[in-house]
Design brief:
heterodimer; A: 140 residues; mainly alpha; 8 helices; 60% helix; B: 179 residues; globular
């Protein structure tokens, strides 16, 4: 049998609500309209944006500036000698490559090798370290 | 409380707060129930009711005396409800259950429906209606509004509303008979 809507008791407030809810609701609404408008707070927050951008840009500029003052020579100078030697040995750089990158003035000093006071053992060790022990010094 | 008294207090800057308090007192329950019947969950209805009254407060200057205060507030509440339900449906879009399924489950598990099993059946049946049709049904059936007033609130023709209400009643009767 079809159930008719007219047969059902009409309850205008079909759900339950917490006790004294409507007393508290009025107070909550009044509080919301009494406190400063949120749009003002949003505007105030937006007003701080330029200051943040200036701070951010200053930070970026300072970091950039510090990085630029450090030259390649400075950075190479910070690397320990042992590490450079290990790198050169590991990468098997030929003596010709080393010579092509060497300053002319340094090469000129090789003409006065006799004036350099260095023990034979120490010289052999250095030549051996750089794999130069087979080079005839007169060919340079 | 007569609307014209509230309006006269609101229109005077010095008595605006007092007038608004009268307005809240006069309308908060009706607006809460209008919203609650649409969104079902008390916490959501509570939030929306507060939002509606804050909007009313902010737009008091936009209120035109050619509309009744009553239909103006109802219109704001109705728009808030429909907007809220649209957002909820978007959130449920990727979910396995629909918003209506979730609300139906809430009705059963929360024991917040007043009255007996038949009332629960009726509320479940209402959730099967499209939102706008449910809105029209609620305003006519529970709030006893005239079709002309509902037309003013929803900006729809009286003829369309009558047809929608009649159709809703038939669907509800079918739902509760089948259930």
């Amino acid at each position: 049998m079809k159930q008719r809507l007219d047969d059902i008791e009409k309850i205008k407030t079909p759900y339950t609500v917490p006790e004294n809810y409507f007393d508290q609701l009025q107070a909550k609404i009044q509080e919301k309209v009494s406190t400063p408008s949120p749009t003002f707070q949003v505007k105030w927050a937006w007003a701080t944006v330029p200051a943040f951008i200036i701070i951010l840009l200053s930070g970026v500029w300072l970091i950039n500036n510090n990085m630029k003052t450090q030259t390649v020579s400075d950075m190479v100078a910070e690397i320990p000698e042992e590490e450079i030697m290990a790198y050169l040995t590991y990468n098997e750089i030929t003596e010709q490559e080393i010579l092509s990158l060497t300053d002319e003035a340094v090469l000129d000093d090789f003409g006065n090798l006799e004036s350099i006071e260095i023990e034979d053992e120490e010289l052999d060790g250095l030549l051996d370290s750089f794999g130069l022990d087979e080079i005839d010094i007169n060919d340079i | 409380m007569e609307d014209h008294l509230i309006i006269s207090k609101i229109q005077d800057i010095e008595t605006r707060h007092y007038g608004f308090n009268l307005l809240i007192k006069a309308y908060q329950e009706r607006i809460y129930w209008h919203i609650r019947k649409m969104v079902v969950i008390h916490e959501d209805a509570d939030d929306l009711t507060q939002i509606v009254f804050v909007k009313v407060w902010k737009n008091l200057d936009n209120f035109r005396a050619d509309s009744t205060l009553y239909t103006w507030i109802y219109r704001i509440a109705t728009n808030e409800c429909l907007s809220f339900l649209r957002k909820q449906k978007t959130r449920h879009f990727l979910s396995l259950s629909s918003l209506n399924d979730t609300l139906t489950e809430h009705l059963t598990s929360s024991h917040q429906v007043s009255g007996d099993e038949v009332q629960l059946k009726l509320q479940k049946a209402l959730l099967k209606l499209p939102d706008k049709q449910r809105l029209v049904f609620n305003m006519k059936y529970f709030d006893d509004l005239k079709f002309e007033e509902i037309a003013d609130i929803t900006n729809t023709s009286v003829g369309a509303l009558k047809a929608s209400y009649h159709h809703a009643v038939k669907k509800i009767e079918n739902f509760i008979t089948e259930d």
